[in-house]
Amino acid sequence: MEAALRIAQAGFHSVLVEKEAELGGTLRSLHSSFPRWQDPRELIDHQSERLAKSRRVTIRTQSAVTSSLPKEKGFRVSLTSLRNGDTEELDVDAVVLATGFEPMDVSVYGEYGYGIYPGVTTSLEFEGQLRKWALSTGDITTEIPQAVALIQCVGSRDRSKGNPYCSKICCMFTAKQAGLIMDLFPDARVYVFYMDYRAAGKQYEEFVRQVIEEKHVRYVRGRPAKVLPENGRLLVRAEDTLMGIPVEVAVDIVVLASALVPHPATRLLAEMFGARTDEYGFLEGEPHEPARTADRVFFAGGCGFAVESAAALDQGASAAANVIALFNEDR
Amino acid sequence: MPRERYRDHSGNLYAEVDAYHLVENLEQCLQCGKCSGICPVASLSPSYNPRQIINDVLSGCTSRWLGSEEIWRCFWCAGCYTLCPVDIHFPLLMMQLRYLSVASRHGLKYIAPFKRFALRAREDGLTFAPGSAKGRERIMGIRRTIGLTPWPEVSEKAREEYRALFDRTGTTEFLDGIREEEDHPLELAYLKGRITGD
Amino acid sequence: MTKPRVVRPEEKFLALPANVFLFRSCTGSLEYPGTENAVRETLANLGIQALMDPDQTCCSGYLLTCSAHKPEVSLAITARNLSIVERKDLDTYTFCNGCYGYLSELSHIMMHNPAYLKMANDLIEDWGYRFEGKTKIYHVQEMWYRLRKTIGEKVLRPLAGLKVGVHYGCHYLAKQYGILDDGGFPTFHEEIVEILGGTPVFYKERQLCCGYAVGRGFTHREEIVQPHLFKKLTSAREAGVELITTVCPGCNVALDREQPHLNKRYGAAFHIPVIDLSQLIALAMGVPLQKLGFDANTIPLAGVLKKLGL
CB-based contact (8 Å) between B33 and chain A? Predict the structure, then answer.
């Protein structure tokens, strides 16, 4: 959205192709944000308002680019409506890819019981639960958890079953979720099982310390070995590595911070436009031109690597700057 | 307790603890604790801790473990290896630490019981065949009842060659040389100064 | 994520063999010969002929991991045993997780370390052996799963809902790559139990090691192995398990033979019979009881057999 808006401000026209019915991507599913506890909907609303006012952005929701032919300075793309299958042909002079990321399928971690025990969920799914709790009017009488365990690095930093890389933002959004649980249920016990907590950003360390010190979330250093059911609850077996002692914690909900992987559409689109992807399927930038992935093709956001919303915004603007510069050169 | 001094391996880490080249990726260890979390022995006796052993080996403090009783507790269940996110084959490291321990005459009492089993297996081509006549009778009785040969068939050729392999590799010599009297005392090193409640 | 971890049984067995080499397990053939018989009978029932060879020796893995000898001799012994199978142009089928684990690991080491392969082959060449890594190593539990539908069709004595607590053991799932299930939460034995008409019980310590444990049963029996087994069996009993199945004679020894000692030490009154999964399958498929050798079991099968009307 940011890229389209900046390109429009510079006087050029763009078509915003979105496969869902609404704009916003993952941001739409989020409840609160770090490091300022702001509502992500405000950002979406802000962008949507600007888009509505702009006369140079055409929005095509529930649509997808299904093929592309390179032409002299640009591409001829086919846009297909996912509603009724209608296609239209468009001539474009540049492309910005912003297909985002999605959580990895963590059912490969049988030891955590995702898909086996009902209380085991993923961060993204849990975000929806938090919003439900936050928005419910009156008292929440059912399913109040007495204890919640949030497990970091499920699928990240794992060369054996998952992805070797660090998904960058999970330490932060897990801290956020942990803090939110305590806000909703002050009597609950919340444990975050981590290996290292990565809070490298402005106000990030303060955010995590606030969650630990003021919201009283317990951080346990140790990647859990197993989740087991017992008496209707879930036991998390891990080692508290700072103490060097194996521990077992009884909780009601286990939240798995799933690794963030590129959306499958990214690879298809990369092929269509001659863009390069790395071994994980993320788009690759070019040396000294991080926003450009192929001739006249730029990218921003989660499709390049896991990123927080503020940075995605920046990258959108950066992609736009590249497009604007390119178009000025063309003239 | 004085501060620990880390030794400088100067690139000899693996040569020291991995003479058989079976565990070449110790530095990939994230110290995540999944191994200790699942380890059945650690849950019963916290002074045994696979994660800490790897950390110590990397810091050059292997000798602490070579004289320890703890390394003889590992079950080789490979739960650690199964869960490890970087596939460190910890049991194969443990195997080699045990050999190093034996070489410095620690832990002999934990392999002495197997000396007689190994020497008998060398003769039988089979392991754990009972030494007593009564034991053998029992087995032969059951096998006959169910329609098998009274004793598992192991040919004379097999036994000769098995014996020869023990001799050729110096294993027979190694076994003969196990003398429990030479055992140096083992230490429960990690219990010193450590609060363990029961 | 590089090598495939879980593979489908059809991928493991591209074609069903008519003949297989059945690798003798020392503990299996001595402590629970009924298991050996059950394996042979079940393979025959499924149209597979099992060949054994008296020239095969112990896999030598157990004593290797007890640190009673060094890897060199076990590598050579493995090479020798497997070259016997290779001469017959067959694949190697084990019925012991231990044999499976050791043969797989040791042959893997030789296949990835030319120096070790050469050392092993040099030691056995004057007898005319040569190991090339051609024979594939399987455990019969994989074949049971592959042919579970056929097994199901041939069940003559369904298990009447018998509550079976499965014990996978460690060394099959520890292979991690190229096996039939993931060690995180395996279910393929439970599927077989269901097909036989039993009720699988997911007891809390289902995946705990048996504690037979490379000799710890000798060196640390009271200290660690007994408290450990106490945990496992308590968990099984609390969940109502009536029968425990294993796929390793070593596990069978630990779980079966230690119960009376635990009862004496802890006043526990454990009475859960432990048999091999192959014996359970053979039983369900109608193999005569006297061939299954339950007399070898410490905890008698009488209660379970009565429940099944046998």
Answer: yes
Residue range C128-135: mean pLDDT, rounded:
96
Query: Which residues lie closer than 8 Å to C293 by C-beta, 6 or more apart?
Result: B142, B143, B145, B146, C32, C33, C34, C35, C37, C279
Question: Domain spans of chain B?
Answer: 13-107+185-191, 108-181
Run of H or E including A70: strand A63-71
Residue C129 and residue C117: Cα distance in Å, rounded?
Answer: 12
CATH code assigned to B13-107+185-191: 1.10.1060.10
pLDDT at B187 over 50: yes
Residue of chain A whose Cα is closest to the Cα of B85 = A158
Give strand ranges (E) for chain C: 19-23, 49-51, 92-94, 137-139, 163-166, 199-200, 243-246, 274-276
Q: Does the distance separating the beta carbons of B165 and C73 come in below 8 Å?
A: yes
* A280 chain-C contacts, CB cut-off 8 A: none
- Write out residues in chain A with pLDDT < 70, as ranges: 137-142
Architecture per CATH, domain A2-100+263-330, reads as: 3-Layer(bba) Sandwich (3.50)
* Mean pLDDT along residues B23-30: 94
C235 interfacial to chain A (CB closer than 8 Å): no
pLDDT tier, C30 (very low <50, low <70, confident <90, very high otherwise): very high
Give the number of residues written for chain B.
198
Comparing CB atoms, the residue among B102, B126, B165 nearest residue C67 is B102
Higher pLDDT among residues B181 and C18, named by residue? C18
Chain B interface mutation, best of A153, A160, A235, A239, highest count of B Cβ atoms under 10 Å: A239
- The answer to whether residues C231 and C208 touch, using CB atoms and an 8 Å cutoff, is yes
User: C114-124 vs C71-87: helix axis angle to the nearest 10?
Assistant: 70
C213 pLDDT band, cuts 50/70/90, is: low
State which of C140, C174, C202 marks the end of a domain. C140
Chain A CB within 8 Å of residue C3 CB: no
Do C245 and C160 lie in a common domain?
Answer: yes
Task: Report chain B residues whose CB lies below 8 A from the CB of A157.
Answer: 30, 85
User: Is B153 part of the contact surface with chain C (CB cutoff 8 Å)?
Assistant: yes
Q: Which of C111, C143, C113, C213 is nearest to C171 (CA)?
A: C213
Distance, CA of B107 to chain centre = 10
C170 CA to chain B: closest CA distance, Å? 5
Residue B52 sits at the chain A interface (C-beta within 8 Å): yes
Task: Give CA–CA dist B66/A315, Å, rounded.
Answer: 54
Taking an 8 Å cut-off on Cβ atoms, the answer to whether B31 and A153 are in contact is no
The CA distance from B170 to B180, in Å, is: 19
Q: What is the pLDDT of residue B193?
A: 46
Determine the Cα–Cα distance for residues A220 and C92; give it in Å rounded to an integer.
46
- Could you tell me which residues come within 8 angstroms of residue A287 by beta carbon, excluding any fewer than 6 positions away? none
Indicate if A103-259 has the same CATH topology as A2-100+263-330. yes
Does residue C152 sit in the same domain as residue C24?
no
Question: What is the predicted pLDDT for the residue at B12?
Answer: 76
Quickly name the fold that domain A103-259 has. Answer: FAD/NAD(P)-binding domain (3.50.50)
Look at the block and give the residue holding tokens 């008998």.
Answer: B120
Q: What is the dihedral of CA B101, B105, B109, B115, to 10 degrees?
A: 90
Which structural domain, as residue segments, surrounds residue C54? 9-140
Q: ipTM, 2 decimals?
A: 0.93
- CA-to-CA distance for C84 and B188, rounded, in angstroms? 46
What average pLDDT does the structure give for chain C? 95
End-to-end C-alpha distance for chain B, whole angstroms: 24
The answer, yes or no, to whether residue B168 has pLDDT greater than 80, is: yes
Q: Which of residues 89-108 of B touch A (CB under 8 A)?
A: none
Distance from CA of A171 to the nearest CA of C (A): 22
Dihedrals phi, psi of A76, to nearest 5 degrees: -105, 115
